């Protein structure tokens, strides 16, 4: 498998005993990169390989070498570290500028993706089971719609005569079109995965340079949604510095994605386009001109630290969120790992209040009734899927003079129903949390009925302020109307 190693010096160090107690990441899983908060060790025989500043991945060790990892950093890469004379101006001058289809993707996607549940170990049965479970578990009635396959669906080689990507017949005996047909017959939409590089993260064919052929193939198969990853990018397609004019829409990274947008448009089939670009290249500034949603970071992990770090990142880019324009906080981890039920509520509530795509990432059969109640909560999903107000909730200062921390706890937002307040307790103990109604944008002073969106029950009528004890790492979700 050819792996492009970023031209930035590969800083490798032996992790040794330091991380001996940390569980290894999965094969082809993420193990480092800017903003990465998960584990950095790989299974035996696999090596943490630095693909670019944002992404290190467990790849098969072909050298018999030591376990290495990219150093992680919370700061952006400096734009002056490498001087590259790029042909950016020339490419940017001729790159397509066609936008994404607005027949789809107005609201953030609701669905399921195979990766967090199965990684590379996917097949038709598992995908169709997820579709059936949408119905049997009440997820379809709640609005879950997309059934999406991630990496590892094809053979490693394209068809020698047609050049097309070939579905792996041992995993998908009826091809991808066969799966799409069954998913459609159940009433859902179907998504697939490719990569804006020469190979996917797991080493299967990428679409860079084959955009027209691959988009036509996906359209012919009946694909409705494309997740487009960012691994194995040739050196001349990366961005070593700020593009001329400072507009990242004209960066090499953006142009790789723009080529696929144009190719999808040429098929005549509306695709929902998910840019899996890891928060690279200031994507929040131009993502809506190219796709419907864009990843804000490296891969999610089932950890409280991931949830808090992605919230901290996202609150800096709330202006980018509206209809057809969604910051993607990555796939859900409810059902995976050791998140407490309070943390799982906060995970869901945060994706709701920021209007991130919500793609479930577990074997749905493993979800218990408490988890399903969270994921199908009608009032939170109504905020997320509001067809008349596309903007997210935003942080506010709960009392006059209070400051908003970098990980805000109080958020207010508007739905077509009215005003909502969300309170995240980031403290490690249950905490009484108070806000003044006059501090909530749009409310003013007076008496208000406070309603609990989780239970669907009114909590009473309150004057001036409202105070509630929020459990550690839990989120209160409130609807507030004048009394
Ligand atoms: C292709 O782009 C044109 C021009 O923006 C637009 O009218 C049309 O709906 C697009 N078609 C698809 C399938 O995206
Ligand atoms: C998919 O994998 C499961 C579990 O390993 C197996 O039971 C099933 O038969 C497989 N289906 C296909 C189509 O290979
Ligand atoms: C990178 O090189 C390939 C092969 O020469 C070329 O087709 C492509 O346009 C180049 N990309 C950029 C951004 O210059
Ligand atoms: C479901 O699992 C969570 C832990 O993820 C647990 O807190 C909760 O009590 C469980 N609910 C039921 C009904 O077993
Ligand atoms: C966390 O709770 C403790 C005990 O109530 C309190 O003293 C502390 O100020 C709280 N910290 C934050 C950040 O809310």
Automatic annotation (TrEMBL):
CDD domains xrefs: GH27
GO CC annotation: extracellular region
Pfam families per the UniProt record, alphabetical: CBM_1, Melibiase_2, Melibiase_C
Enzyme class: hydrolase
Gene Ontology biological process terms in this record: carbohydrate metabolic process
InterPro entries reported for this sequence: Aldolase_TIM (IPR013785), CBD (IPR000254), CBD_sf (IPR035971), GH (IPR017853), Glyco_hydro_27 (IPR002241), Glyco_hydro_27/36_CS (IPR000111), Glyco_hydro_b (IPR013780), Melibiase_C (IPR041233)
CBM1 domain span: 23-59
UniProt signal peptide: 1-24
Keywords: Disulfide bond, Glycoprotein, Glycosidase, Hydrolase, Secreted, Signal
Localization per record: Secreted
EC number: 3.2.1.22
Reaction it catalyzes: Hydrolysis of terminal, non-reducing alpha-D-galactose residues in alpha-D-galactosides, including galactose oligosaccharides, galactomannans and galactolipids
SMART domains, per the entry: fCBD
Keyword Translocase on entry: no
GO molecular function, one term: cellulose binding
PANTHER family: ALPHA-GALACTOSIDASE B-RELATED, ALPHA-GALACTOSIDASE/ALPHA-N-ACETYLGALACTOSAMINIDASE
Stated family: Belongs to the glycosyl hydrolase 27 family.
Protein name in the entry: Alpha-galactosidase
Organism: Ganoderma sinense ZZ0214-1
């Amino acid at each position: 498998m050819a792996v492009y190693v970023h031209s930035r010096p590969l800083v490798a160090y032996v992790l040794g005993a330091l991380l001996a107690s940390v569980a290894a990441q999965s094969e082809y899983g993420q193990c480092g990169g800017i903003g990465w908060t998960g584990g950095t060790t790989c299974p035996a025989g696999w090596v943490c390989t630095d693909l670019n500043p944002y992404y290190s991945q467990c790849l098969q060790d072909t050298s018999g070498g030591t376990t290495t990892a990219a150093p992680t950093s919370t700061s952006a890469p400096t734009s002056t570290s490498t001087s590259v004379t790029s042909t950016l101006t020339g490419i940017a001058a001729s790159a397509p500028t066609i936008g994404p289809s607005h027949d789809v993707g107005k609201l953030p996607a609701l669905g399921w993706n195979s990766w967090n549940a199965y990684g590379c170990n996917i097949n038709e049965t598992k995908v169709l089971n997820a579709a059936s479970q949408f119905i049997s578990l009440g997820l379809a009635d709640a609005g879950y719609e997309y059934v999406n396959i991630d990496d590892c669906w094809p053979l490693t080689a394209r068809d020698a005569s047609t050049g097309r990507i070939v579905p792996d017949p041992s995993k998908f005996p009826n091809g991808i079109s066969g799966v799409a047909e069954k998913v459609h017959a159940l009433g859902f939409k179907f998504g697939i995965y490719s990569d804006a590089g020469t190979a996917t993260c797991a080493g299967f064919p990428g679409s860079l340079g084959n955009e027209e052929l691959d988009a036509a193939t996906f359209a012919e198969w009946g694909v409705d949604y494309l997740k487009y990853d960012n691994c194995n990018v040739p050196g001349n397609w990366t961005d070593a510095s700020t593009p001329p004019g400072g507009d990242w829409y004209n960066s090499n990274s953006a142009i790789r994605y723009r080529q696929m947008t144009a190719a999808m448009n040429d098929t005549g089939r509306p695709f929902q386009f998910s840019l899996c670009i890891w928060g690279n290249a200031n994507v929040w500034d131009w993502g809506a001109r190219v796709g419907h949603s864009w990843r804000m970071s490296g891969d999610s992990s089932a950890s409280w630290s991931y949830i808090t770090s992605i919230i901290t990142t996202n609150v800096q880019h709330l202006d980018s969120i509206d209809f057809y324009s969604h910051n993607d906080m990555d796939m859900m981890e409810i059902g995976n790992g050791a998140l407490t039920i309070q943390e799982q509520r906060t995970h869901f509530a945060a994706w709701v209040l920021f209007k991130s795509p919500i793609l479930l990432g577990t074997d749905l059969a493993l979800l218990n009734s408490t988890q399903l109640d969270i994921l199908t909560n009608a009032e939170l999903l109504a905020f997320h899927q509001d067809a008349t107000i596309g903007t997210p909730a935003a942080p506010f200062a709960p009392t006059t003079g209070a400051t908003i921390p970098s990980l805000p706890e109080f958020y207010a937002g508007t739905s077509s129903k009215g005003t909502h307040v969300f309170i995240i307790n980031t403290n490690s103990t249950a905490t009484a949390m108070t806000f003044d109604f006059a501090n909530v944008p749009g409310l003013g002073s007076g008496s208000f009925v406070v309603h609990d969106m989780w239970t669907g029950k009114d909590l009473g009528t309150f004057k001036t302020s409202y105070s509630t004890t929020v459990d550690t790492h839990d989120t209160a979700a409130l609807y507030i109307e004048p009394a």
